[in-house]
Amino acid sequence: MLWWTLGAYNLVVMAAYGWDKLRARQGRRRTPERTLLWLAACLGGPGALAGMYLFRHKTQKPRFVWGVPLMALVQAAVMWWVLRTI
Length: 86
What we know:
With 86 residues, the protein is mainly α. The chain has one domain (2-85). It contains 3 helices and no strands. It has helices spanning 2-26, 33-54, 62-85. The two termini are 15 Å apart.
């Protein structure tokens, strides 16, 4: 059940990055960068990383270029550790 929930959440995070890219192209109100980073930090690193490169969004901003992959790596390491200790 946990894996389905994490997978669904990461799809939502990826969609949030796509939505923000669409809004940017339309010149409309955007999702704050802080919100996008928080979505990534709350176990959404893989989805954020996928959204960044799938939609080519936020790939020039250093906070995203370095921060999101680092968050995804830390989250993967924590998950590996949790699975190993169970």
